[in-house]
Amino acid sequence: MNPRPLVAVTGGTGFLGAHTVAALAAAGARVRLLVRDPDRLAPALGPLGLDPDTVRTVPGDVTDPAAAARLCAGADAVVHLGSVYSFDRRRRTDIARTNVQGTETVLRAAVRSGAGAVVHVSTVGALIPATDPELRTDSPVGRPAEPYLASKAAGELLARQLQREGAPVRIAYPPALIGPPLGPDDRRLGDQNGRLRDTLRGLMPLWPTGGFPLGDVRDAAAVLARLATAADAPARAFTPSRFLGTADYLAELRAATGRALPAARLPGRAMLPAARLADLLQRHWPWHVPAEYGAAYTCVHARPVAADPGGPEPRPVGRTMAETVHWLYGAGLLTYRQAGTAATP
Questions:
Q1: For residue 287, what pLDDT is reported?
Q2: Domain assignment present for 183
């Protein structure tokens, strides 16, 4: 790698993407972004303290081979973050187009460009359902019965195929991510921040048993930056997380906010039919229904990630929750009562 490597990034204006651009810039890398909507560039880079004119951009979409080739040309590394992260049934077409077709377009363009590192951002959900009690980087790819997770499993299969063919592909597995965006004016909520907010607004009185790995978006971004710039980075890596049962999640949020947050927990598998029915209702209901089949499915099938003795430690979940809630309150997305004690710094 050059002293100041050029890193091409897709999805750089999203929640994890913006934090990753910040981590790359802090590491001294030059960044080139694939930007579908130029109007999103200034709001995305503003919280970083970066002038949009100092970051190289390529207009286009991840499904456009010509745009992908322009993005990757001459780059030392490519980080593919561009995806639709949603369990919303109404976005199934976008999910398949972006997460499957777009991933193949970008990864193949990156490999053809000769980049020294091609980082594919997968998810721990691409490895479920699993038979082993813990997930490892060599765990088999799952066959999830949920559109978003299935799309990420398809991308995972391609990334592993390219690795077997000798391409310099590195795969990252983020968990569910929460954390404050990059500044008080940053409005990127993220899927899990949205779920946390719905819980504090009283929109999620029922929870399935089971659990899921949860991490801080800043920890994940730091790992992605290392995978893109470090010569000795591993071929596959989980980003830091802790496995929380849904009861643990609620307990941490209660402690972070000082609120009672009454909620009932039902057997996860018993909730799946009702969650699927809510998904069907979502097709005809104009407002978002918080009861998502994909979220319940994940809680039922998720597994802890095997400990990496040499890996970075995740931040304390309670601290991340408190910081996230404080930002939500400051951004006007929660009332003082809903934020509880986290409203105060």
A1: 64
A2: no
